[in-house]
Amino acid sequence: MSTVWSLGAGLVLLLLWLRHRGLEAVLVHHRWVFVCLFLLPLSILFDVYYQLRAWAVWRLHSAPRQHGQRVRHIQAQVREWKNEGSKRYMCTGRPGWLTVSLRVGKYKKTHKNIMINLMDVLEVDSERQVVRVEPLVTMGQLTAHLNPMGWTIPVVPELDDLTVGGLIMGTGIESSSHIHGLFQHTCVAYELVLADGSLVRCSPTENSDLFYAVPWSCGTLGFLVAAEIKMIPAKKYIKLHYEPVRGLQKICERFAEESKKKENSFVEGLVYSLDEAVIMTGVLTDEAEPKKINRIGNYYKPWFFKHVEKYLKADRTGIEYIPSRHYYHRHTRSIFWELQDIIPFGNNPIFRYLFGWMAPPKISLLKLTQGEAIRKLYEQHHVVQDMLVPMKSLEKSIQTFHAGLNVYPLWLCPFILPNNPGMVHPKGDETELYVDIGAYGEPKTKHFEARASMREMEKFVRSVHGFQMLYADCYMTREEFWDMFDGSLYHKLREQMNCKDAFPEVYDKICKAARH
């Protein structure tokens, strides 16, 4: 009984404090209170619901049987839109707050919402080494489904909640991308419902123009209803080598060297200052030295980027064996390093042991509850950007990021970019090695101003023939956007498939200059 009274008294004191400070002030200046008390428990409930649902679908084998019916329902909604006179653009009916992107999609309120309830793994074809999935299948869900069968996919982008549809219509990358390319390059076929309500399948040999135009189109060519993705055999561990490197030139040289080695299954860099970094290389293996196994994904373990930093501070190399699924989602618990700005004490051992099992809060719930004050605060004083630049421009790029943003750590992830048709390809005729530079956090540079500073970054990226990931805030004009991206195939297909009355142009959907 005394416990109940204690909880009741604590709740009363909390409510009095909220009333005194004001809810908005608490959400802005003490957001961790709201996150710890409400969002972490809610996130657990979300996870439990979706895990139980996935288990039930798997046990009942209902996904393949219901897929056709669900697709026909989507087709019926599109035909209904046509019968109503095609008066407004269409978009998916998924609420904007459920997406991992921090951008708030206001178009959902004015466009015709097409409900797409497609979130299941449909088929695992071991002979073809292909898995067929629906677009709302998440990376966490997919690896949990495939790994017990002895399979994985070649590129497993970080964060459990990233969906297959988002990674295809936008893009996705991981530390294996120096071998396999971006997420789109591991896909062998897409199935889409088009603006006329028809269902089409596209691949490199079937409707190939559409196949190459879909990635980066952000849902402006049709509704994705299924995708086929390559599978590779999974192994138990990643043998990970940590190498601290000092001096910017040496950092870039070592990173490029390791990225070109095909014997490295994984290559990743964390840059902690302008001249300090840790470069990690990994290989898949079934054997491990027991004393060197590190189950980094366990809730009580230090956040991965903090763990890596220990090698830099100690100025020593090291080797660990990390269970494969722990490695694939190594940055999930701390949302890379974003969680330290939300829960400043989140990596404290006491917090990890007592409450780490609830972390991280769902990004979707953070978006849903952030409010206008926090949204504006983040927009002006926070950066979440991924810029893809040629490896040969890495040193100059890091210097530009330092001068314009001064955000650390920076995430370095190499990837091979083939010369395929579509919006994103190298400037020349040959495959080229690129690197994703991820900047997440509060800029420390003086006189940072979101719009002006990011426009300078975008200008630099265009000058080296790089690309900006489209999940983030984009400040380019229409002309600048299509200077960065190759729109020739995209515009040709929008004309051929009568998309102009059905879907907004990708620029109008994602760029701030078009949305404001």
UniProtKB/TrEMBL annotation:
<dbReference type="InterPro" id="IPR036318">
    <property type="entry name" value="FAD-bd_PCMH-like_sf"/>
</dbReference>
<comment type="function">
    <text>Catalyzes the reduction of the delta-24 double bond of sterol intermediates during cholesterol biosynthesis. In addition to its cholesterol-synthesizing activity, can protect cells from oxidative stress by reducing caspase 3 activity during apoptosis induced by oxidative stress. Also protects against amyloid-beta peptide-induced apoptosis.</text>
</comment>
<dbReference type="GO" id="GO:0008203">
    <property type="term" value="P:cholesterol metabolic process"/>
</dbReference>
<keyword id="KW-1133">Transmembrane helix</keyword>
<dbReference type="GO" id="GO:0071949">
    <property type="term" value="F:FAD binding"/>
</dbReference>
<dbReference type="GO" id="GO:0000246">
    <property type="term" value="F:Delta24(24-1) sterol reductase activity"/>
</dbReference>
<dbReference type="InterPro" id="IPR016169">
    <property type="entry name" value="FAD-bd_PCMH_sub2"/>
</dbReference>
<comment type="pathway">
    <text>Steroid biosynthesis; cholesterol biosynthesis.</text>
</comment>
<comment type="similarity">
    <text>Belongs to the FAD-binding oxidoreductase/transferase type 4 family.</text>
</comment>
<keyword id="KW-0153">Cholesterol metabolism</keyword>
<keyword id="KW-0333">Golgi apparatus</keyword>
<keyword id="KW-1207">Sterol metabolism</keyword>
<keyword id="KW-0444">Lipid biosynthesis</keyword>
<dbReference type="InterPro" id="IPR006094">
    <property type="entry name" value="Oxid_FAD_bind_N"/>
</dbReference>
<keyword id="KW-0812">Transmembrane</keyword>
<dbReference type="Pfam" id="PF01565">
    <property type="entry name" value="FAD_binding_4"/>
</dbReference>
<keyword id="KW-0274">FAD</keyword>
<dbReference type="InterPro" id="IPR016166">
    <property type="entry name" value="FAD-bd_PCMH"/>
</dbReference>
<feature type="transmembrane region" description="Helical">
    <location>
        <begin position="32"/>
        <end position="50"/>
    </location>
</feature>
<keyword id="KW-0472">Membrane</keyword>
<keyword id="KW-0285">Flavoprotein</keyword>
<protein>
    <recommendedName>
        <fullName>Delta(24)-sterol reductase</fullName>
        <ecNumber>1.3.1.72</ecNumber>
    </recommendedName>
</protein>
<dbReference type="GO" id="GO:0005789">
    <property type="term" value="C:endoplasmic reticulum membrane"/>
</dbReference>
<dbReference type="GO" id="GO:0050614">
    <property type="term" value="F:Delta24-sterol reductase activity"/>
</dbReference>
<keyword id="KW-0753">Steroid metabolism</keyword>
<keyword id="KW-0560">Oxidoreductase</keyword>
<keyword id="KW-0521">NADP</keyword>
<keyword id="KW-0256">Endoplasmic reticulum</keyword>
<dbReference type="InterPro" id="IPR040165">
    <property type="entry name" value="Diminuto-like"/>
</dbReference>
<keyword id="KW-0443">Lipid metabolism</keyword>
<feature type="domain" description="FAD-binding PCMH-type">
    <location>
        <begin position="50"/>
        <end position="234"/>
    </location>
</feature>
<keyword id="KW-0732">Signal</keyword>
<dbReference type="GO" id="GO:0000139">
    <property type="term" value="C:Golgi membrane"/>
</dbReference>
